[in-house]
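dumping this here so i dont lose it again. seq + smiles for glutathione
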Amino acid sequence: MLTLYHAPQSRSSRIVRLLDELGVLDQVEIRNVTISRFDGSGGADPANPHPEGKVPLLVHDGVEIWESSAIILYLTELFPEAGLGRPIGHRERGPFLSWLAWYGDVMEPVMVFKISGLSHRSLDATFRGVAEMTARLAGQLSRTPYILGDSFSAADLLLGSTFVWLPDATPDVPAIRDWMERCEARPSAARLAAYDTAHSAA
Ligand SMILES: N[C@@H](CCC(=O)N[C@@H](CS)C(=O)NCC(=O)O)C(=O)O
């Protein structure tokens, strides 16, 4: 039994999209919950078992899995048929794990500091900044159409979700813009937007 705790238009949206890409939406119960939003609206939902009141949270047979990259790894391994993860032994396994971790350890902090207008020597020393993050992405995407190589993976879905969330922050770099266009042309992007719109209104 799989349950995803989800708040429309939030970081859990990318997990709904992943479930769609994996073709398993019918195997997961999606429970919509409220969360505290940046603008002060909303609030933690007593129906959400996440210890910090956050989403996404996946519960599998009573066991909680939290943090987007962990949930993505878990689901791509549970449902390998769609080929969105990279199994042990695959030559893209290492880069797959690395990009998932890089998202949470570098990309997201850098973006949050940027939109918060924060800058400090120790932040720069630890995470670098938007220029370095952009160069890292562009370096890969100027060599391959997707982050791991020739085919779309859950790493593209996770990294790209940053610029779905913050379209104006999409770097003006052709390799990155073309990659986002390729990722967002996938039917799952429009289906997620429709899903979240329908459930936001509810
Ligand atoms: N690093 C976590 C971040 C989760 C997170 O902060 N989610 C936001 C939604 S966009 C949330 O639940 N915020 C409510 C809160 O912080 O109370 C992940 O990617 O899963």
